[in-house]
Amino acid sequence: MIILGIETSCDETGIALYDTERGLLSHALYSQIKMHSEYGGVVPELASRDHIRHILPLIKQVLHQAQCQLADIDALAYTQGPGLAGALLVGASIGAALSFVLKIPALGIHHLEGHLLSPLLSTPSPQFPFIALLVSGGHTQLMQVDGVGQYQLLGETVDDAAGEAFDKTAKLLGLGYPGGAALSKLAEQGRPGQFRLPCPMLNSGDLNFSFSGLKTAVLTLINKSEMNAQVRADIALAFQEAVVTVLTEKSLAALSSADLDRLVVAGGVGANRLLRQHLTKKATSIGATVFYPQLEFCTDNGAMIALAGALRFQAANKLDGASTGSFTVQARWELSQTIHNEQ
Known about the structure:
It is built from 10 helices and 10 strands. By secondary structure, the chain is α/β, with parallel strands linked by helices. A hairpin with a 4-residue loop joins β1 and β2. The model is unreliable at 339-343 (pLDDT under 50).
């Protein structure tokens, strides 16, 4: 069964072909970072228009790479939400149109479910059940994953997510967009131990997170410090160390509470080098294993949507009929409330 995956939730157009027997056949990604960097952040209307410009050429590209034709596709999966409404509508409308014309089913996928399952694209891949640390954009969550569609929320952020804190702190340090990547790069020049920042909710007794206060602590530190290039790097490192400490300790606590020894890390922050080093070291010390997606699958991508769609169709053990051409998107959508409609 070959699934075409379409991802257009924000500022990256991702297309992929996934075969349930052979695995990932091809994938392509177009990033809008250069365009949005001129504005210091994502401009929703521009994002939607850029998706329109690139989505069909990317579909042709992945078909060519996989040496496939449209007629070879058995089903489609597109990101239904959450995300920017206009951007989501581009991918959903193209998916529904192709589904109607080709007379194959289309399935709306939750963006975070795609991230959650993305480590399954790698080798070795985790077996169910596992604990997942989901750190993507405005989301920081710990989930227990017992199978496809079987997700239990264990803890989440009560204010800013880790990714948001990275971006806001980067802005305080005068860094450009995208801030998280720029801050991580700057932190590599920092000197350990120069500054110490608080680790919010580290000893809260639950699995929730809070990063808004950490951003405020950085602002206070900046205001009372004599700033130069080295000090900025030292502050970036101190901030990153605080975030990594919290994410690591909470993840290990989740493993302990669930009595599991497999941890999956997914989402953009999952590409952070320091986080990977600390998590792997700490998990290994307690006999646990950490699984990460490949770096190219940490950011938004079509491969994770194609995979999630394939797993959903396999779990249902059927491909029901042809699409009616109707579709919906959900700009706000809790993963725990996912209801997928096979159209």
